[in-house]
Each structure stands twice: as structure tokens, then as C-alpha cells.
Specification:
The protein is an alpha+beta fold. The protein has 17 helices and 7 strands. It has helices at 10-21, 27-33, 50-64, 69-80, 82-91, 95-99, 102-106, 139-156, 177-183, 222-225, 234-246, 254-260, 265-274, 279-295, 302-308, 314-325, 329-335; strands at residues 7-9, 47-49, 113-120, 123-130, 165-167, 187-188, 194-199. α1 crosses α2 (27-33) and α1 packs parallel to α3.
Length: 336
């Protein structure tokens, strides 16, 4: 991690406050007692120091008297990110493709950690690796991250994907019933890494196929994204469609694109040159086009749009958008 002060987006803190409020805790007073200005929590793109995040989590756990509060936070995190999951199901075709972008979606929380997907015999392991500032035995954050991940995987596939086992880096609690309700009964504690186990063949399951419009003026299905003249050029259409699916995975390069299209880099460059275009030109044009479509749906936060377009953070996306349109994404959205 860099020397910059680690921060988290306010969405993560709002999830903690919502979970506490559901247990009759005054969320506004909780924020104030954690030295957080409640007005900042209304600004979607605002980031707050991680020590404030830890403080509000600890206070919420103490005042609710619920050591398993993280499970409720994970549930809220999953549900409040539903719009993003819906868009991702139109971009990814299988669970494997979706798992490839999970590390990127974690960035929406801020400087909290990363997720790794590893094969393990007949299973795949979804591992949670917190940043250095995070105590690996901090149950609330582990529960929040793993429960949100389990709910996402179970919700986006056309068939249910149950958690086969779960491992936790913290000690076994006195009461495991709440954990069993989310992860099943195969639980192991005081493990080196917190992780979930899913059946290995589940990665080939198709995602739910959405057949409706996500907003009145934006249809997210692939066939609606690109109009003439690209529709007449099958190769160009397929290239852009592959790029669109790859963008949320992070930095997209011509080598990554060529690999996903199962052709060599030289062949890809040659075919693009034959069409008087280049990888860079296609990438910039696609990002600009998709940014306008995504901004047309007010339910998507600017941070989520940045992820869908493959930017590392909201600031990078805002700078690129200003170069295209002469204003920030937020200003453009307000003008509409």
C-alpha cells in the first residue's frame, strides 16, 4: 500500500450505521461519537480515514451487543450494491468471468483489502486478504466481506451456488448460529486466511440472463450497446463486446484483449489497422460511450461507473471524462 493515509468510501460506514440502526441504535449519534461528520456521509464519493471506519464499527458492535454485526453489514453491502451486480450480469456470462472482477469490486470499499480466487481440489477458494492496517482477527470486517461475497455469488447465477465450507481467521465464538445461517455448518476457525469454498464446477454456471431495461433510457444488454456502422462489421463488434466484458477486471491492455479473443497481438493489431483504428482509439471511444450510458442511470454511483469502465478510482475516471466533455461526471449528470 502507498504512504498515503488509507481511507474508505462512506458507503462502508453507512452500511455499519444502517445495521446498528436496525438494532435500535441512534445512527446519527453513533457517527458523532465516532468523530464522523454525518453530513459527509451524504456525499457518495467521499472517503474517510480508516481509523474512523474501525472506530464506528467497534462502537456499533458495543452498542448493539452483537458480535456478529458484520453479517448484517455484509447483507446491507450486498443489497445496496445490487444495481452494480445487475450491470455486471449483463457484462459477464459465467461465474468464472464474474469472479475475475471481484478484486475490482472490493475497491469500492476503499483501502480495506483484496480478494483472491484459488483452486483447491474439487473446490475454489474465495480468500479475503485485508490490508496491513487491518487486524486479521477483527471478526466484524471478516464477516462483512465474506457474507457479502457469499450472497453475491448465490444471487447472480442461474442456479444456486451454496457455500460448502467457510474458514475464519478469528477464534471460534461462543454462539455460531448466526454464522451457520449464512455459511452452513462446515465452519473452521483460527485459520491463516478467511475464505469461502464453492464447488469447482460452479465457475462454469451461466449468470442470470436479464431481459429487461435497467432504466427508461438505458438498455444494458450487449446487443443494444453498439449501433451502425459497427453492427455490420462482425470483428469490430466482437472486439468491442470483448473489451466491454474485460473492462471491470481492471487495466485492459492489448495483450489481455488478444488473449481473451484467442488471437495473437499481431493479428489483432493488423485487423484493427485494416479498419483504420487502433486499440487505444477503440478503448477511449468505448469508455466515453459507455460512460454516457451509465451516467444516464442515476442509480449507479460515479464510483461504480469508474469500476465498470476499468478505472482504478473515481478520480482517474473524472479526469478522463473532463477531457471528453469538459466537465466532471457529476456535473454532466446534474446538467441532464
Amino acid at each position: 500500500m502507498s504512504d498515503a493515509l488509507p481511507t474508505v468510501y462512506v458507503a462502508g460506514i453507512n452500511a455499519v450505521l444502517q445495521a446498528a440502526a436496525a438494532k435500535s441504535v441512534d445512527s446519527r449519534q453513533l457517527a458523532l461519537d465516532a468523530a464522523i461528520n454525518p453530513d459527509l456521509l451524504q456525499l457518495v464519493g467521499e472517503r474517510i480515514p480508516v481509523e474512523d471506519y474501525r472506530r464506528v464499527f467497534d462502537l456499533a458492535e458495543a452498542r448493539t451487543g452483537d458480535p456478529g454485526l458484520g453479517l448484517a453489514v455484509g447483507h446491507i453491502t450486498f443489497f445496496t450494491g445490487m444495481n452494480l451486480h445487475l450491470y455486471m450480469s449483463t457484462i459477464c456470462r459465467t461465474l468464472k468471468e464474474y469472479l475475475n472482477v471481484i478484486p475490482s469490486t472490493i475497491k469500492l470499499h476503499g483501502d480495506v483489502g483484496r480478494v483472491l480466487i484459488r483452486p483447491k481440489g474439487d473446490y475454489i477458494r474465495l480468500e479475503w486478504h485485508p490490508e496491513d492496517w487491518v487486524d486479521t482477527s477483527w471478526r466484524c470486517l471478516v464477516d462483512a466481506m465474506l457474507s457479502a461475497a457469499a450472497m453475491i455469488v448465490g444471487a447472480i447465477c442461474a442456479l444456486p451456488v451454496p457455500v460448502r465450507a467457510a474458514e475464519f481467521s478469528y477464534a471460534r465464538p461462543a454462539d455460531c448460529r448466526s454464522l451457520e445461517s449464512v455459511f452452513g455448518r462446515e465452519l473452521r476457525f483460527e485459520q491463516p486466511v478467511s475464505c469461502l469454498y464453492f464447488d469447482r464446477e460452479a465457475v462454469h454456471l451461466p449468470l442470470i440472463d436479464l431481459d429487461y431495461e435497467l432504466s427508461p433510457d438505458f438498455k444494458a444488454l450487449p446487443e443494444s450497446l453498439f449501433e451502425e456502422p459497427d453492427q455490420a462489421d462482425i470483428f469490430l463488434r466482437d472486439t468491442r463486446d470483448t473489451m466491454r466484458r474485460a473492462l471491470p477486471g481492471g487495466e485492459l491492455t492489448i495483450d489481455i484483449l488478444a488473449e481473451q479473443m484467442s488471437i495473437s497481438r499481431r493479428t489483432l493489431q493488423r485487423r484493427l489497422n485494416e479498419r483504420d483504428t487502433s486499440f487505444k482509439e477503440l478503448l477511449l471511444g468505448l469508455r466515453e460511450e459507455l460512460s454516457l450510458r451509465y451516467l444516464g442511470d442515476g442509480r449507479l454511483a460515479v464510483t461504480e461507473i469508474a469500476l465498470l469502465l476499468g478505472y482504478s478510482d473515481q478520480a482517474s475516471f473524472s479526469n478522463a471524462f473532463k477531457a471528453w466533455r469538459g466537465c466532471s461526471p457529476t456535473e454532466y449528470r446534474k446538467s441532464r
